[in-house]
Amino acid sequence: MLTKFLSLVLISLSLLTGAPSVSAQSNDEAAVTQALESLRKAMVAKDRGQFEALLSEHVSYGHSAGRIETKDEFIKVALASKSVLKSLTFTEQKTQVTGSNAIVRFMYNGESELDGKTTTTKIGVLTVWQKEQGAWKLYARQAFRL
After folding, report:
1. Lower CB count within 10 Å: N or C terminus of the chain?
2. Which pLDDT band, with edges at 50, 70 and 90, does 67 fall under?
């Protein structure tokens, strides 16, 4: 009888101590998803403040053509671009959070206009996020042609 009781207590404790980590993981996944959505909106709006807030000081931002930019380089190019994003969606998102790091893979689907000419872009993207002082920051991004 005592053995059954102890087994029940141990099972209950393991379930209770496991619940917060599952909940925290879900909360972190939601927070990373929100950070990615904020980045998408910042790209459409060309919002320097959001870029500053969302990108790590150490970000390595890789484009599908092979160009790699630092935080300052990315912001400068994004703000100076004469191209206007007409639409931008991130689809097929897959998020994996491990501690203070997260990986998000997705499809970048954009339509932009430059000098009256419309261009459609569909590329794959891998991003790495890191939790810095309680906020998720983009640490690395690499786009690739499909």
Report:
1. N
2. very high
Neighbours of 17 (CB within 10 A): 9
More confident residue, 26 or 32: 32
Exposure string for 87-101, b = 16+ CB within 10 A, e = fewer: eeebeeeebebeeee
* Sequence-distant (≥ 6) Cβ neighbours of residue 33 within 8 angstroms: 93, 95, 104
Reply yes or no on whether the pLDDT at 63 is more than 80. Answer: yes
Query: Which pair of tokens denotes residue 66?
Result: 């092979």
Give all domains of the chain, ordered by start, each with its CATH number: 21-145 (3.10.450.50)
Evaluate if residue 14 carries a pLDDT over 50. Answer: no
| C-alpha span between 94 and 116 (Å, rounded) | 34
User: For 67, phi and psi rounded to 5 degrees?
Assistant: -70, 135
Tell me the C-alpha distance between 35 and 138, whole Å: 8
Indicate the pTM of the whole model: 0.81
Element (H, E) at 135: strand 135-145
As a whole number of angstroms, the distance between CA 42 and CA 63 comes to: 17
